[in-house]
Amino acid sequence: MRAGRTSRNVIDEPMTAPVILVLEDDPGLRVLIARALQQNGFTVCQAGSGAEMWSNFEKRPIDLILLDIMLPGKNGIDLCREIRARSGVPIIFISARGDETDRVIGLELGADDYIAKPVGTRELIARVRAVLRRGPLERGTHTVRDERASFAGWEVDLRRRAVYSPSGASIDLTGAEFDLLASFIGSPQRVLGRERLIELSRVRLGDASDRSIDVLVSRLRRKLSSAGEPAPIVTVRGVGYMLTADVTHG
Amino acid sequence: MKLAPLSAIGRVFAVVALTAVIGLTANTLLYEGASRFSIREEEARRASEHIVVVARLLEGESAARRARIVEYTSTEHFKLDWRPGPIEPGEASRTLHEMHYQMVLWEPSLRGMNLRVHVGSPDDATEVIGSLQLSDGSWLHFRARDLIGEWQLERGQILIACLPMLALVLIAMTALRTILKPLRLLADAVTRVGHGDSIVLPEQGPGEFRRLIRAYNDMQARIAAMIKDRTEALAAVGHDLRTPLARLRLHVDTVTEAQTRNAVIRDLDEMEQMLDSLLTFFRGDTHAEKPQLVDLAVLAATVVDDLQDRGFDITYRGPEHCDASLRPVEFKRALSNLTNNACQYGTQVLVTLLADERAIRIRIEDDGPGVPPEDLHRVLEPFQRLDTARRRNTSGVGLGLTISSRVIADAGGKLTLSNRERQGLCAEIELPREPGPAMLCYEPAAH
User: Fold this and answer.
1) CB neighbours of B163 closer than 8 A, spacing ≥ 6?
2) B92 interfacial to chain A (CB closer than 8 Å)
3) Of B237, B259, B282, which residue constitutes the final position of a domain?
4) CA distance linking residue B53 with residue B31, whole number of Å
5) Minimal Cβ distance to A32: which of B239, B250, B299
6) Cβ separation of A227 and B302 shorter than 8 Å?
7) I need a labelling partner for A217 at 20 to 30 A (CA). Which of A210, B91, B115, B334 fits?
8) A125 with A36: CB under 8 angstroms?
9) Could you read off the pLDDT of A19-43 as tens digits, one per residue?
10) B295–A170 CB contact, under 8 Å
């Protein structure tokens, strides 16, 4: 059995569409999620139960699983545990309960992200892309490990989408800001072109433009300043932005 | 004048007091009437016998002998005298008809002797004077003291009679207070019903009270169970509603006409907000989150940024960083409720964060219509919407401020609403800071 491709990069290899498995017991919602994903260039296979998921899982390689927590029979949390026992395939939880406990449990069990129902197409696609982008970079083994990165005293938990300041305080970022930060962390000390950033933010912001990227970067800078020190993000005039700090993973 | 209804103890006291007073009055009147009557009768008889005997002695005696006889027959309390004319009573002296009647009844021989009886003087009601005519036309005078019982003495008797009564009333009151105590406790408990804390009362007191208390305890349990059932049902519906909402959320992106799509998205946002606040409200005090160190300034800035992205004119002013220990998800919801409210009612919103050693203050000010002063305290209560006063498009179920207030109180802080001087509402969150070294607040860095 082969579960989860070990390497894939959405942006660099657009010709082969990533395969997303959607496990959702509500048929209407399942079809809608599938359609939204297909329209954004993903290949989708659908499952209405755990059994269906396993049969799909064995038929073809899966790049990501969207997993509903509330399922009849076996719940998503148990399924997540079973999947993790067999594979390191990225998992995104979808739950109708906007509950903090679900979120924590899901992430503890090795889910890569958690989305609360109801979710819009943009948010869904942005989250799927973000998880897929991280996928090949930090994964490879079948064991769960924290995906933490740190730079200049700042800690970033990519899986939990959490940021901690040098003083240890949790830093609340908007979805788009976090995605931007994740992009910087993915390519430290490399200039990220404006076009690339606009492309990344388009999913979330909808009408991403030069200006909205500048606003986004300035907000991120303000939130990542510390003790009077400016944030380690510099403007490369006419090109884009760059994270100047060293990033260490793990 | 309308009097407040008397308490049970008051009523019982009134009954006991009335009984006591009536009993006492009846007793006194009876006793007093009887004693005055008997005294009068006895004295009158003695006096009439005395004067009849002296009158007989005087008949046929010489004038000198008569003077000696009246002197001999006078006593300390009964003075006699012999005069040619009848006694002249003072102007204000009453004639004692009753005594006259008694005396004549006792000594019928007095009937033909022109007996006159008067009160001795208006000042001393106990002195009686009188006269009777002898057969030769001269008069025998008499002056008797203490013929009528003294009133003073009887007042003292009444007082003595009252004392045991008073003691009885006091004892009755004390006993009643004890008996009625469970009822008072029950009244207190019933007053508190619905204010969060339900108390199971111990069954005590008289049988009827025990039954009442048991009925109250049972009723309280039934109400609690009913509320729990309803809440759970409502929460379940809320959860279930999220699936169709999720479908709609995905459907809406297939709508090609931008105006319709945006309208539907706005409605969806509103429905989600309502569901969220309902579920949060019903979840109540069960904290899934643990307090942790949070950069409150960034949190406030992010809340503001989100609203800016949605097209609202909202600004954050304050330090770039300010750490505080609280439950981030809950607190963000509390703050969002306040900023959403401000954006809904005002066109321009300012969020200010001020921090000193003792407290962090977050002020959310809008330029909307504000809240009428008399309703300021009411808006924090659940399910309150001031549609009449704030006529702009109202949305939500009226739980936003309630939830905010509760979350802030849980964090040890305080939410205060006030109207701004010129226009609009100011909501201020005040969070006390624990003194310590971990108080980090940075001013904007110079770029």
Assistant:
1) none
2) no
3) B282
4) 33
5) B250
6) no
7) B334
8) yes
9) 999 998 888 889 999 999 998 899 9
10) yes
B357, B414: one domain: yes
More confidently predicted of B394 and A71: A71
Per-residue pLDDT at B251 exceeds 80? yes
The model's pLDDT over B131-185, given as tens digits with 9 standing for 90+, comes to 888 888 888 888 887 666 555 455 666 677 778 778 888 888 888 888 888 888 8
- Which CATH number belongs to the domain containing residue B308 in this structure? 3.30.565.10
B19 and B168 inside one domain = yes
CB count in 10 Å sphere of residue B94:
11
How far apart CA B63 and CA A42 sit, in angstroms, is 157
Structure tokens at A246: 């060293």
Contact A118, A195 (CB under 8 A): no
pLDDT given at position B427: 92
Residue A118 is nearest to which of B245, B302, B447, comparing CB atoms? Answer: B245
DSSP secondary structure letters along B201-244: PPP-SSHHHHHHHHHHHHHHHHHHHHHHHHHHHHHHHHHHHHHH
Query: Is the same domain home to B54 and B177?
Result: no
Most confident region among A122-131, B252-261, B348-357, B435-444 by mean pLDDT: B348-357
The reply to whether B215 and B325 lie within a common domain is no
Q: Determine, yes or no, domain membership for B260.
A: yes
Domain count along chain B: 4
Identify the pLDDT of residue B192.
79
CB-CB: which of A29, A124, A171 is closest to B295? A171
Q: Which of B253, B305, B321 sits opposite A120 (nearest CB)?
A: B253
Task: Round to whole Å and give the CA distance between B432 and B357.
Answer: 9
Domain that holds residue B332: 292-432
Mutating which of A172, A180, A209, A241 best tests the B interface, going by the most B Cβ atoms within 10 A? A172
Highest mean pLDDT (candidates A66-75, B147-156, B339-348): B339-348
Identity of the residue numbered B389: A
Query: Contact B302/A118, CB-based, under 8 Å?
Result: no
Instruction: Say if residue B146 is in the same domain as residue B167.
Output: no
Phi first, then psi, for residue A126 (nearest 5°) are -60, -45
B261 and B226 housed in the same domain: yes
B248–A225 C-beta distance less than 8 A = no
The residue out of B258, B282, B306 marking a domain boundary is: B282
Look at residue B382 and tell me whether its pLDDT is greater than 50.
yes
Q: What is the pLDDT of residues B114-142, one digit of tens each?
A: 888 877 766 666 678 888 888 888 888 88
Interatomic CA distance for residues B120 and B128, integer angstroms: 5
Interface TM-score (ipTM) > 0.90: no
